[in-house]
Amino acid sequence: MKFKNLGNSGLKVPVLSYGTATFAGTNEFFGKWGKTDVKEASRLIDICLEHDVNFFDTANVYSQGDSEAVLGEALKGRRQETIISTKATFQMGGGVNDKGSSRFHLTKALDDSLKRLQTDYIDLYFMHGFDKDTPIEETLRTLDNMVSSGKVRYIGCSNFAAWQLMKSLSVSEKLNLEKYIVYQGYYSLIGRDYEQELMSLLQDQNMGLMVWSPLGWGRLTGKIKRNKATEDGRIKSGGDVGAPPVNEELIFDVVEVLERIANENNKSIPQVAINWLLQNATVSNIVIGARNEKQLIDNLEAVDWSLPEKDFEELNQISKQPMIYPHWVGER
């Protein structure tokens, strides 16, 4: 397993981490993703550790805390050999203050996550989204205090617009507060919006990207092909609710190229799609998800090899997206 520094930090992590949104599945939304219990989770974690993947990503909102609880139970006795990231911001109750990035909400959210995960500290704590109703300074001072207290070691953010991230970094620098070291964002062969603004920002600020949904909500697994009914799985069960719309022809075109390249290189379609992402220098880590051992092992084997240059370029061309304004100015 290859290791990289996690963004703008000295922490070395495997280039793959295991996402636990499929753990528990105790509410309607996440139940469509998976319902992995403690016994199954323990086995999947065993497989990860056997492949030197010791990084596990979760969030308090996954099954309203039950995913964290399953992960915490499954990691009993081996917490010290693992790295855990979790997140807060989204709705966690019926109260008006049960969401957001205020000091009030984050303080409770962190303590609740620590209890569910059965740990004294979080290695990487993400703001799951940008809270427009809370001053950026309040959020960052709260996170800074969490790091100072030892409850959190590093901080990151997810799903921020480029200006929101840059403003946050500027406030941290101005007030000498902890900075976000890594950005967790969506990036795949059928979702390359990241490249247009966020990628250049991360390069400029020496940050890294932690990719979520590298297979585009399961649409790059090979289960969706032209003139073929969708097989059983997350897509058929409705687990792609909330996914950004993508032109079906783009999906079909990309999957056809992926399939041919996979066959020529004796790899699977998901392995090729993940390996393409690993060629981007700003990518520090890719969060892989798996509902069973077969899927997990297949995804873990996406590393320790590189796509031939001609295949990499062909995938670049078939999945290329038009530039948004003002990035197309001067490109003609």
How would you sum up this structure, described in words?
The protein has one domain: Alpha-Beta Barrel (TIM Barrel). The mean pLDDT is 94. Helix 8 (248-264) packs across helix 9 (269-278) and helix 8 (248-264) packs antiparallel against helix 11 (309-318). The longest helix is centred in the last third of the chain and has 17 residues, at 248-264. With 332 residues, the protein is an alpha/beta fold. The chain has an 8-stranded parallel β-barrel with strand order 3-4-5-6-7-8-9-10, surrounded by 6 helices. A two-stranded antiparallel sheet has the order 1-2. The chain has helices spanning 28-31, 38-50, 66-74, 103-117, 136-149, 162-175, 198-204, 248-264, 269-278, 293-300, 309-318; strands at 3-5, 12-14, 16-19, 55-57, 83-88, 122-127, 152-158, 180-186, 208-212, 283-288. Helix 3 (66-74) links the parallel strand 4 and strand 5. It is globular and about 50 Å long.
